[in-house]
Amino acid sequence: MVFQDLRLDPRLLRSVQHLGFAKPTDIQQEAIPAVLVGRDLIVSSKTGSGKTLAYLLPMMQRLLKSRALSKQDARALILAPTRELAKQVYAQLRLFIANTPVTAALIVGGENFNDQEKLLKRQPNVIVATPGRFIDHLEHKSVFIEGLELLILDEADRMLDLGFMPQLNAINKAASHRLRQTLMFSATLDHAEVDELTLSLLKNPFRVALGSGHEQHSDIRQQFIFADHLTHKEALLQHILQHEPIKQLIIFTATRDDAERLAALCNQQGYSAMGLSARLTQGQRNTVMQQFSGGKYQVLVTTDLASRGLDLLQVSHVINFDLPKHAEEYVHRIGRTGRAGAKGEAISLVGPKDWPALQKIEAFLRQAVEFTVIAGLEARFNGISTPTTKRNAKVTSAAAGKTVKKAPNAKPKAVKTAKKTFFEGGDDGTAPVRRKKIDAV
Ligand code: AMP
After folding, report:
1. What's the whole-model pTM score?
2. Which side of the chain, N or C, has fewer Cβ within a 10 Å radius?
């Protein structure tokens, strides 16, 4: 199939051509025709699958081809969990509204409320927003959505994780036109609240589930390396910085302090690095993201802010300095690399504190992960076996540089008896941490 087969408005086809896209992705092939015939839609898709165009194109087609249900109200509302993602979507949308009469506004938190009110007074046809700030405007009566024709939820699962269910319900109630179409995108549908939302928001939805979050992303090579404690993780990070062919790198950490310290460490290693954390103001965050995507920095060190939706095509490597608490988040983090057909490397450092998270990730991916050992930087820590964890950790690949192919120090195996032992050093590199270990058989 080529884009012409979708019978889109020539202005939209020109914009697609301008982007250099020859044919629709699988998600786009499934989703666009369904939306064009007026169906509600629920899509589960892996990151980087082309979901943004899967909703922007049919949305634009509807706005260009059919009469507005209301003269004043917004016609389409796109909700995204984070400011960064909302900005990303808005940037893509601007491409498609160029040379059309369609108008749009971006409404996200952290920016001036009064300025946004002025923007909304101009009655934009499309609003891209984060739920919290949008609700503020709805309650303030600076925006009206009774005549809304398209409600689009991007990364619905993430919005629910961030606690936006009440806002989404309120928006659903306010946008009550019977001809409203609702499109929902989520990385995972294995989420009780997503089910609830589907039932309350969507009417007889068309379902598209291509490449669920569980699948291995073939363009991303995943490596896991055992680490004993913080200092050991830093040594591993330095090794990776020195040996991997890094174009751009995102490092994910659990804490703001780590984000700042690791950015400094990368700078010492000759990389231009910036830390992105909630400690920065919105303006500063915007600047850092723009500069990173523009190539000014080679390394971005962040807590979870940059893990979703951002389209950063130069990112060759993602490092999980700490594993995320939720397994879905792991899939999103590594999805920052390997975008649009490029190859990516995802390297995760697994210390004692990361162990429970690793088990969740394995359960989510439905397979045991394999560990890489770097010569000279072997860890004493090699996992905590439990009676339910049958692991098959063997080394098949290695981080670039001097590495050895060998089994982890003590491969965790199926177990019979349990007794307590100590691992030296905690993840914070200070006090020894008492860990429960169960003897291998
Ligand atoms: P998304 O899943 O929307 O974040 O898109 C992931 C990446 O794929 C982005 O860089 C898009 O610009 C790109 N993309 C979207 N649609 C296509 C297409 N039909 N052909 C090639 N690349 C695409």
Report:
1. 0.59
2. C
